[in-house]
Amino acid sequence: MAEATVSVILEQMTAITIDKAIEAWSLVQGAEKEVKRLETNFKAHRLELEDAQEKEYVDKRVKLWLDKFRYVSYDMEDVLDEW
C-alpha cells in the first residue's frame, strides 16, 4: 500500500517537474529571441545616433534630442551587455 502511494506521488512530482522545466525552457528561448530583436534595434539606433551627432552643431533641437537619446542608448547597451 505504501509503495503504491509513494509511486503515485513520485509520478505526479515527475510530471510537475517536467512541466516546469519545459515552461522555463520556453521562457529562456523567448528571452533570447527578444534580446536578438533588441540588438537589431540597438544597431539601427546607433546609426541614427551617429547621424544626429553630425547635425547637433547646426540645430539646437537635435542637440537636445541627442542628449536624451544618448542616455537611453547607454541604458540599452548596459542591459544587452548584462544579458
TrEMBL record:
One of its GO terms (biological process) is defense response. Residues 6-83 form the Disease resistance N-terminal domain. InterPro entries: Rx_N. Keywords: Coiled coil, Nucleotide-binding, Plant defense, Repeat. One of its GO terms (molecular function) is nucleotide binding. It comes from the Eukaryota. Residues 28-55 form a coiled coil. Gene3D superfamilies: 1.20.5.4130. This is Disease resistance N-terminal domain-containing protein. It comes from Gossypium tomentosum.
